[in-house]
Write a structure and sequence with these properties.
Helices cover 46% and strands 16% of the residues. By secondary structure, the chain is α/β, with parallel strands linked by helices. It has an eight-stranded parallel β-barrel, surrounded by seven helices. The radius of gyration is 16 Å and the shape is globular.
Length: 229
């Protein structure tokens, strides 16, 4: 993809992650304020704190995102739909859902597709977008490709590499595979392991429209220094 290094190019692709298991209280509010200050695309915050994020981020360009079926995707589909609807009610406009990893590994593709479709429909009915998390570290290449195809078939907005809490995160080979396995109708998000500016630039050049990161300040401070005259 064509690429020009500007602050907007990087910052407006970052989903600032606020999902660490020990994060809570003031740290979540501070994380939202940091995301707004750096003008990133969104925060991805724990579901219980969506209303907090909506309050803090009101009037900013930073969207409120959260997770569905996190981190292993094993929730019943009806529970995932409820999570989605509740998160949107609380103020989320972007939902990152985890596929049912066990079903994908078992080749139960009709069930996997129905699960993704149900959450996608619930999101789109309320004007929200859905990012479908694969957890590639557990999957073979043909399974990753099949998930990309399902995302396109059901109209999901994004396909996403990983939760950041599996045994591995985004890899360049996986991003290449995912980008060629679905059309540009489905956007691509990298998550897990993008820890510095050069890594961020590399995955964007491969076609990533969003990148999940908990190191937003470090990456964007480095960018500001690099762009300084």
């Amino acid at each position: 993809m064509s690429f020009e290094l500007t602050y907007e190019t990087i910052a407006r692709r970052i989903d600032h992650s606020l999902l660490g298991p020990t994060l809570g209280g003031q740290a979540l509010e501070d994380g939202c304020r940091l995301a707004a200050r750096y003008d990133v695309a969104s925060v991805c915050i724990k579901p219980y704190a969506v209303s907090l994020a909506a309050r803090v981020l009101k009037g900013t360009r930073t969207a409120v995102g959260t997770t569905v079926g996190f981190p292993h995707g094993g929730h019943a589909t009806a529970v995932k739909v409820f999570e989605t609807e509740r998160a949107i009610e609380d103020g989320a406009t972007e939902l990152d859902m985890v596929v049912n990893i066990g079903q994908a590994l078992a080749g139960e593709w009709d069930a996997v597709a129905a699960d993704i479709d149900a959450v996608t429909r619930a999101c789109h009915a309320q004007g929200a977008i859905v990012k479908v998390i694969f957890e590639n570290c557990f999957l073979a290449d043909h399974q990753k490709a099949r998930l990309c195809q399902i995302c396109e078939q059901v109209g999901a907005d994004y396909m996403k590499t990983s939760t950041g809490y599996g045994t591995g995160g985004a890899t360049l080979d996986d991003l290449r595979l995912m980008r060629r396995s679905a059309s540009s109708k489905v956007k691509l998000k990298a998550a897990g392991g993008v820890r510095d500016l050069d890594a961020m630039i590399e995955v964007i050049k491969l076609g990533c429209d969003r990148v999940g990161s908990s190191r937003t300040a470090e990456i964007l401070d480095e960018l500001k220094a690099r762009l300084a005259p």
